[in-house]
């Protein structure tokens, strides 16, 4: 009977530590709901002591999301654990995940603690967590650079104190597959109590080996993989969920393990997270990159036409990627549109469907052929809509290579109509200045990116902006066949988000 591997998703915790990523409570809740559809076993929803926003997000997810285990992270001290316990307490299956560093370098310079002090703190932390919840995970941070003797003693003590999962992180992405595999095998042999618990791994990608290290650990006996969608995470990120899952799925013959993931939800999940985090996926990214199933060389195309398995080791459909050559257009009706959405794995309410259909029709007036990528962009754009304090009524920009760009905008804020104008260095600069004036919001644009959703001159343009206000980053997205309009919508969306404090209106 194949071993069951549990997928512990840390997109909302380690993934949110990706530089430049900041999600509000609604966005985190929406992602958690999608992770349920993906059928992950554990959702690490956040680090409750880190901020009030993190606490609220973990609590909201614990209260509303059923199915997977909901974990909250805590350092090995009582205030952290008490806060995590409070946040996860309403979960159907709560877990507290507590950690302390175990490597000589971390103990000496960061913790300024001896091995015995670390061991004592770990045991106390696990016992404290156990007084709140049955399911307690213990991580020895920087395990891969720790002394083996001490690591065994530490995990053994944590298990005896009540840990149900022990996690072995390669915190700095330093290990190699062979070395990490040996580490797992050694722990399996040297910790007498290890068969009472799940053995988890958590690999970072600093040397590009996170997925390989995770897979080798599985081959050597690990039963839980910690990973993040699109490989998000601290620095170079965590092992990518879609890569580890598709590797054990495609190479069942080799790994001989099972997982619970509904792989058909992978593409949709990846897309949603890319949209909400504002982090584009590189085209050549394994599994979910735009080129992952594209064949360029004639010889490859010929092979695939004859027999797909010549160059395709996975079917695009297995990750939920539709490859419809039949495009929709302005004569397509609601029924065809709804059917296509269903085929693409979307399950929209009547209200959401009406909205999406309205936008589809508007787009069809401007764009001859509407592809699945366009439809997906429309639907993702309406996933989360915070109340719009600022509504864009109108904008106009005049620009040229020999003239100063001038913009006028009109917005509605709480029933008041405000019009402002500004000049700037190009259409975007001028219209953004006019918007800032009209909305009386002082924020800093820290990133602006634009890409086309599909091909052709009439393609939908997607603009992602990141703005900073009071030290926080807000991500805005705009979609239109007119790229200046997409830019204005993205900035308005980001400004609306600045008017919210982690999903709770402060206006
Ligand atoms: O990388 C790491 O060590 C972590 C721990 C908190 C598990 O993220
Ligand atoms: Zn980590």
Summarize the topology.
Layout: E1 3-4, E2 6-9, H1 25-38, E3 42-46, H2 52-64, E4 69-75, H3 78-88, E5 94-101, H4 104-111, H5 115-130, E6 135-141, H6 148-161, E7 165-170, H7 177-190, E8 198-203, H8 210-219, E9 224-227, H9 241-250, H10 252-255, E10 257-258, H11 266-277, H12 298-306, H13 334-343, H14 350-366, H15 372-381, E11 390-400, E12 403-413, E13 416-424, H16 427-439, E14 444-452, E15 461-469, E16 472-480, H17 483-498, E17 500-501, E18 504-505
Parallel strand pairs: 1-10, 2-3, 2-9, 3-4, 4-5, 5-6, 6-7, 7-8, 8-9
Antiparallel strand pairs: 11-12, 12-13, 14-15, 15-16, 17-18
Helix pairs in contact: 1-2, 1-11, 2-3, 5-6, 7-8, 8-9, 16-17
3-methyl-2-oxobutanoic acid binds at residues 14, 99, 139, 141, 167, 169, 171, 202, 204.
General description of the model:
- Helices cover 40% and strands 22% of the residues.
- A hairpin with a 2-residue loop joins strand 17 and strand 18 (504-505).
- The longest helix has 17 residues, at 350-366.
- It is globular, with a radius of gyration of 25 Å.
- The chain folds into three domains: 3-277, Alpha-Beta Barrel (TIM Barrel), CATH 3.20.20; 298-381, no CATH class; 390-506, Double Stranded RNA Binding Domain.
- It is built from 17 helices and 18 strands.
- It has 507 residues and is of the alpha/beta class.
- Strands 2-3-4-5-6-7-8-9 form an eight-stranded parallel beta barrel, surrounded by eight helices. The chain has a three-stranded antiparallel β-sheet with strand order 11-12-13, covered by helices on one side. The protein has a three-stranded antiparallel β-sheet with strand order 14-15-16.
- It has helices at residues 25-38, 52-64, 78-88, 104-111, 115-130, 148-161, 177-190, 210-219, 241-250, 252-255, 266-277, 298-306, 334-343, 350-366, 372-381, 427-439, 483-498; strands at residues 3-4, 6-9, 42-46, 69-75, 94-101, 135-141, 165-170, 198-203, 224-227, 257-258, 390-400, 403-413, 416-424, 444-452, 461-469, 472-480, 500-501, 504-505.
């Amino acid at each position: 009977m194949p071993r069951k591997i549990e997928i512990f998703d840390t997109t909302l915790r380690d993934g949110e530590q990706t530089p430049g990523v900041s999600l509000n409570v609604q966005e985190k809740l929406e992602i958690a709901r999608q992770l349920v559809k993906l059928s992950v076993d554990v959702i690490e929803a956040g680090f409750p002591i880190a901020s009030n926003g993190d606490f609220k997000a973990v609590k909201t997810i614990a209260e509303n999301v059923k199915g997977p285990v909901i974990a909250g992270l805590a350092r090995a001290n009582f205030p952290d654990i008490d806060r995590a316990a409070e946040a996860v307490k309403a979960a159907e299956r709560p877990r507290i995940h507590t950690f302390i560093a175990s490597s000589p370098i971390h103990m000496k310079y960061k913790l300024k603690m001896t091995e015995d002090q670390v061991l004592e703190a770990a045991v106390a932390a696990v016992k404290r967590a156990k007084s709140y919840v049955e399911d307690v995970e213990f991580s020895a941070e920087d395990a891969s650079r720790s002394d083996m003797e001490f690591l065994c003693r530490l995990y053994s003590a944590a298990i005896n104190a009540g840990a149900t999962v022990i996690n072995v992180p390669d915190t700095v992405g330093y290990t190699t597959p062979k070395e990490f595999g040996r580490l797992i095998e050694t722990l399996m042999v040297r910790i007498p109590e290890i068969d009472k618990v799940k053995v988890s791994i958590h690999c970072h990608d600093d040397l590009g080996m996170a997925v390989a290290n995770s897979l080798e650990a599985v081959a050597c006996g690990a039963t839980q993989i910690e990973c993040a969608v699109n490989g998000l995470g601290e620095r170079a990120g965590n092992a990518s969920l879609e890569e580890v899952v598709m590797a054990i799925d495609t190479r069942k013959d080799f790994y001989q393990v099972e997982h619970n993931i509904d792989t058909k939800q992978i593409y949709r999940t990846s897309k949603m997270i890319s949209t909400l985090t504002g982090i584009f996926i590189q085209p050549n990214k394994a599994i979910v990159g735009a080129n992952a199933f594209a064949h360029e060389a004639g010889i490859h195309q010929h092979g695939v036409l004859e027999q797909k398995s010549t160059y395709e080791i996975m079917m695009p459909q297995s990750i939920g990627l539709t490859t419809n050559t039949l495009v929709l257009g302005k004569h397509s009706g609601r029924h065809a549109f709804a059917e296509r959405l269903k085929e693409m794995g979307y399950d929209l309410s009547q209200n959401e469907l009406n909205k999406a259909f309205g936008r589809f029709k508007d787009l069809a007036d401007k764009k001859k052929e509407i592809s699945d990528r366009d439809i997906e962009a429309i639907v993702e754009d309406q996933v989360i809509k915070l109340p719009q304090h600022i509504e864009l009524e109108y904008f106009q920009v005049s620009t040229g290579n020999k003239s100063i760009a001038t913009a006028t905008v009109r917005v509605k804020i709480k029933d008041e109509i405000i019009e402002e104008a500004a000049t700037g260095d190009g259409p975007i600069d001028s219209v953004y200045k006019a918007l800032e004036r009209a909305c009386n919001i002082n924020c800093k644009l820290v990133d602006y990116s634009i890409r086309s959703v599909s091909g052709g001159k009439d393609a939908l343009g997607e603009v992602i902006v990141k703005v900073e206000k009071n030290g926080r980053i807000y991500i805005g997205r705009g979609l239109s066949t007119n790229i200046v309009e997409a830019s204005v919508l993205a900035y308005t969306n980001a400004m609306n988000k600045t008017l919210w404090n982690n999903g709770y209106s402060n206006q």
